[in-house]
Amino acid sequence: MVRILDYYGLLENTSLQASVKILCPFHEDLKPSLLVNFEKNNWYCFGCGKTGFATDFVRQVDSLNSIEALHKVHKIMNSKNKSKIQITIQEKRPPKELRIEAKEYFYSLPKPSWKNISKHYMISRGFTNKTLIDHDVRINQNTTYPVILPILDMGKFKGWVCRSDKDIDRKYLYNTGFSRQSTLLGEYDKPWVFIAEGYMDWLKARQFGILNSAAILGWKITPKQIEKLSNYTDKVICGLDNTDSGTKGYLELKKHFKVRKFNYPETIKDIGEMDKFAFQKAWQDTIQKANKKSLF
Ligand SMILES: [Zn+2]
């Protein structure tokens, strides 16, 4: 794929990582969305969904048939103009080492004096100074991601996540090596637990007084998360988003736990959109219904 991309002049740098994102030649691409993996020699475009290996790439770029494409790849590979591109494949580092590094980085950041800060992304999202202090929320120097939050799973540091205040594709940025699938954010050792989707929803639920809660950091609970949760409880209040994916997540939870759906008001999408009053009302309705069905 290096030789092929170089041939078409699609590589800007002469030194590359094991994978790289380039502008996709198959659709009108404004920011690089075609991911090329040089270890597997395949490619996938997040914009138009096209995917394949080197011959598929050449075939589609030059509108050839498969045989012609094979010939062309052969020609490019055997051409005398050797590529000057160097690829650096980073060695995979052990997760524990990466976690220690993430922990050192996070705790080296200064603790903001939230009490004296009145203008910040987190405050505009309705978080109180107390919540921000209690949960050790820190400020990131990187302006695209002004906030950095520790991910504690039953009190144990698992990594950090940054949140962007801009409308970009990648709203959350996790530390290298962070494993979402084996992490549950929060404390969940009571006979029931409230399940939130993202970090912000979880933090809001905490602010509203729901302390026994965990975020699954996505809409679909993973097998490892199920295993961890099952050590403590089989009863769950599902506070996943009030959206189609949240409903899918709810059905997934139902396969493994006794689930009560959090009673979202119809027009509300997630906890972030609720104030304390609306949340407490919905919470009371949820608990009443659960009691009626003697679920808890
Ligand atoms: Zn594309």
What does this 3D model show about the protein?
The structure is a single chain. By secondary structure, this protein is of the alpha/beta class. It has ten helices and 15 strands. It has helices spanning 2-7, 54-61, 66-78, 95-108, 121-124, 129-134, 199-207, 223-230, 244-254, 276-292, and strands at 15-16, 19-22, 34-37, 42-45, 51-52, 86-87, 138-139, 147-153, 156-163, 172-174, 185-186, 193-196, 213-215, 235-238, 258-261. A five-stranded mixed beta sheet has the order 11-13-12-14-15, with helices on both faces. The protein has a four-stranded antiparallel beta sheet with strand order 2-3-4-5, with helices on one face. Strands 7-8-9-10 form a four-stranded antiparallel beta sheet, covered by helices on one side. Strand 9 and strand 10 form a beta hairpin. Helix 2 (54-61) crosses helix 3. The longest helix is centred in the last third of the chain and has 17 residues, at 276-292. It is elongated and about 75 Å long. The mean pLDDT is 91. Bound molecules: zinc ion.
